[in-house]
Amino acid sequence: MVNFEYFTPTEVFFGRDVENKAGDLIKKGNYKKVLVHFGGSSAKKSGLLDIVYKSLDDAGVDYINLGGVVPNPRLSKVYEGIELCKKEKVDFILAVGGGSVLDSAKAIGFGVTNDGDVWDFFSGKRVPESCLPIGTILTLSATGSEMSNSSVITKDDSGEKRGSNSDYSRCTFALLNPELTFTLPTYQTSSGCVDILMHTLERYFSKNERMELVDEISEGLLRTVIKYAEILMKEPNNYNARAEIMWAGSLSHNDLTGARSAGGDWSCHQLEHELSGMFDVAHGAGLSAIWGSWARYVLEKDPSRFAKLAKNVMRVSSEGKDNKSVAIEGIEAMEDFFRRVEMPTSIKELGIDLTNEQVKELAHNCSFKGKRTIGGFKILDEKDMENIYAMAK
After folding, report:
1. How far apart are CA 191 and CA 188, in angstroms?
2. What per-residue string of b and e applies to 268-297 under the rule 16 or more CB within 10 Å gives b?
3. Which of 17, 55, 208, 365 lies most in the core, judged by the most C-beta atoms within 10 Å?
4. What is the C-alpha separation between 71 and 61, in angstroms, rounded?
5. Measured distance CA(82)–CA(8) in Å, rounded
6. pLDDT of 86-112, one tens digit each?
7. For every residue of the chain, which 3-state class applies, written as one string?
8. CA dist., res. 375 & res. 207, Å (int)
9. In this predicted model, what pLDDT tens digit does every residue of 348-369 receive, in sequence order?
């Protein structure tokens, strides 16, 4: 077991009506002016923004707003937010939405408090040295950004989708009301559930030896998400199911299921970033389209690890079978789950017919033009990436 660091400073308020606490929490922090950052029209139509504004008004907190964040959030919106925050002397960002809004809020926070081009932090040229404080009212269970140090932004002109990880961007508070996810379309709910699973699976397939306790937590979380994702297909307003999924999303990406400093794989995320950067697909759906091909490609590295997942999570019987046979059944069982929640298991099922040229371009971009490898469980070079994209077609 390797050394690791564990840091979870976010104060969480979970349950019905917690969104009403926003104003008092911001006032308690002595912040003077807030940027309320959100996505499309749903926050307005649902009345959530009115609740937020009333909470801020009642607390005597001044605010401005900026909407228009889209899935796979764009750098252009980040630039707009940075300029607005500087002009209005904003000292706190309240992200009202899902992971895309949080990603955008974190990037804006970097840009306001650090000199130079904020894209430098996502292209790997520099690391942030500060960030505006951020709070969130979560409306989508998926990315776990409410308790993680991650932000992912897409550059408009090139389609590059890049991440920046910094503890400076961790939320000061997160208000998690499962009821706010009731009206999500089935596709968004399922895509979010896949993303939650993947955050733990990326950690589960670590290059380093893991603690048995962490494996037990991970496997329990995976089983829980699979169970309640299927319930939500039939009962979208099931509060307990929404609550289980929402809390799983937070715990899956706050390092409880494996600290990033202790290693992990993350190949599927890197491969998917290029896919959604090029085709603007939903992140979770892109992950389910790729995962099975990645799993089969790297299986030989350690079949026993995949067999453990198959037995303990997918409930595959191991009687009379070798590890590889059990592992393959487990991969197939996971793909069957994806299908049951109407998620794709190939890129073609995303509505994309990849050409051979696009396969090469995706791999070339994912390898940063041949300058990097990805993965921890098995190291992948550009040719490996190309092979996985081709398998996933």
Report:
1. 5
2. bbbbbbbbbbbbebbbbbbbbbbbbbbbbb
3. 55
4. 29
5. 26
6. 999 999 999 999 999 999 999 999 999
7. CCCCCCCCCCEEEECCCHHHHHHHHHHHCCCCEEEEEECCCHHHHCCHHHHHHHHHHHCCCEEEEECCCCCCCEHHHHHHHHHHHHHHCCCEEEEEECHHHHHHHHHHHHHHHCCCCCHHHHHCCCCCCCCCCEEEEECCCCCCCCCCCEEEEECCCCCCEEEEECHHHCCCEEEECHHHHCCCCHHHHHHHHHHHHHHHHHHHCCCCCCCHHHHHHHHHHHHHHHHHHHHHHHCCCCHHHHHHHHHHHHHHCCCCCCCHHHCCCCHHHHHHHHHHHHHCCCHHHHHHHHHHHHHHHHHHHCHHHHHHHHHHCCCCCCCCCCHHHHHHHHHHHHHHHHHHCCCCCCCHHHCCCCCHHHHHHHHHHHCCCCCCCECCCCCECHHHHHHHHHHHC
8. 9
9. 999 999 999 999 999 999 999 9
Residues 6+ apart with CB under 8 A from 160: 123, 154, 277, 365
Q: Model pTM?
A: 0.96
pLDDT digits (tens, 9 = 90+) for 243-290: 999 999 999 999 999 987 778 999 999 999 999 999 999 999 999 999
pLDDT given for residue 357 in this prediction = 97
In this predicted model, what pLDDT tens digit does every residue of 157-185 receive, in sequence order? 999 999 999 999 999 999 999 999 999 99
- The Cβ of residue 124 has, within 10 Å, a number of other Cβ atoms equal to 12
Which residues are CB-neighbours of 238 under 8 A, at least 6 positions away? 231, 232
Question: Angle between the 323-340 and 283-298 helix axes, to the nearest 10 degrees?
Answer: 170
Average pLDDT of the chain to the nearest whole number: 96
- What is the average pLDDT across 229-241? 98
Say if residues 233 and 187 touch (Cβ distance below 8 Å).
no
Cβ atoms of residues 4 and 50 within 8 Å: no
Nearest partner of 151 among 199, 94, 191, 106, judged by Cα: 106
